[in-house]
Specification:
Blueprint lengths: L9 H8 L3 H9 L6 H14 L5 H8 L4 E5 L8 H17 L3 E5 L4 H13 L5 E5 L6 H8 L4 E4 L15 E4 L1 H14 L5 E5 L5 H17 L8 E2 L4 H13 L6 E4 L2 H11 L5 E4 L3 H6 L2 E4 L2 H13 L12 E4 L2 E3 L3
Parallel strand pairs: 1-2, 1-3, 3-4, 4-5, 5-11, 6-7, 6-8, 8-9, 9-10
Antiparallel strand pairs: 10-12
């Protein structure tokens, strides 16, 4: 850390690194044009001195707000804790780049678009991180038409080729997660493994159902397996599973699209039938339900990287994506 009482300046960093003040500025704002060896020296000096760029001066110079907008959606079910963890990680990762997160609320998509328009017109944000993507999502088209940088946490459902999507996105491979969960139950001797998810079309829910199908097919157990669906509600989930059992279904395990659904399935089947949820919420841990854990810190890091590259300002237009692997947390 800087041994003097006053905060370190650009001049201090330049002297410590043996470079000019302009080189320090380039290293902080346009690192791609600085030689790697020089960049390493500047970054080492920044770390040693504890230098923090003057945010207000940088905003005036670059005409950027150093702020990313994120809607804080209403919480439904016990899986709402997942978004809280993602936002916490996003704030940390953005802060490392000298960026702030501006949270706003909206009653629906139209209200969210109205908020976004006000933030863009007021130059209050440099870009957005969109969550809760869905089929026919109008936000991506609205931002794309206005050349506003953004990244989505969630795939652009409905795009023919997601690998060639017109905007950057980050997502967790729910299909792989449910495939691993179902295969794990098969390895534990379970043969009548049900699935409880959301009604289609649901991008995330449909992907997770496919993972269940993949694992059953690989084990030769997919003959006649019928998925159950209901809204993301504990009572509705318990009722759906109870009705299926009353109609003759004989589950010896169930995998679910969320921990909310898994809790309902547990209430309906009892603790003797293994249930695997999705999101690894504190409730799942407390009740002892196995669950698929999303790498939320990695997702937040990827979102910031796609928006900012290796620099300290939001890129005007980027593409690319990150599909991250989850893991199953088993609680036998």
């Amino acid at each position: 850390m800087n041994p003097v009482s006053q905060p370190a300046t650009v001049a201090d960093v330049a002297a410590a690194a043996g470079v000019s003040r302009q080189t320090v500025s380039n290293a902080l704002n346009r690192p791609e044009i600085v030689k790697p060896a020089t960049l390493d020296r500047v970054r080492a000096a920044v770390e040693e001195l504890g230098y923090r760029p003057h945010a207000s001066a940088r905003r005036l110079r670059t005409r950027q707000s150093s702020t990313l907008g994120v809607r804080l959606p209403p919480v439904h079910g016990i899986s709402g804790a997942v978004l809280d963890r993602f936002l916490h990680a996003l704030v940390e990762r953005a802060d490392e780049r000298g960026m702030r997160i501006l949270l706003f609320t909206a009653t629906d998509l139209d209200d969210e678009l109205a908020h976004m328009e006000r933030l863009v017109e007021g130059s209050d944000v440099d870009g957005f991180v969109l969550t809760s993507t869905a089929h026919g999502d109008p936000r991506a088209a609205w931002l794309g038409e206005r050349d506003v940088p953004f990244v989505t946490f969630g795939r652009p459902w409905g795009v023919p080729d997601m690998d060639d999507a017109p905007h950057p996105w980050v997502d967790v491979d729910g299909r792989a997660g449910l495939r691993e969960a179902t295969a794990g139950l098969v390895a534990r001797g379970r043969r009548r493994i049900g699935f409880l998810g959301w009604p289609s079309p649901s991008g995330q829910g449909d992907e997770r159902r496919l993972g269940w199908r993949d694992a059953l097919a690989a084990a030769g157990l997919d003959d006649g397996a019928v998925p159950l669906t209901c809204e993301d509600d504990v009572t509705a989930a318990a009722s759906a599973v109870t009705r299926a059992v009353d109609d003759g279904a004989a589950f010896d395990a169930v995998v679910c699209a969320s921990d909310t659904l898994a809790l309902g399935a547990r209430f309906a089947l009892g603790a003797s039938v293994p249930v695997v949820g999705y999101d690894d919420t504190p409730v799942a841990e407390a009740v002892g339900i196995s669950s698929v854990e999303q790498p939320l810190d990695a997702a937040a890091s990827a979102a910031v990287e796609l928006l900012m590259g290796s620099g300290r300002s939001v890129l005007p237009a980027t593409t690319g994506h990150r599909l991250l692997a989850p893991r199953v947390v088993w609680r036998d």
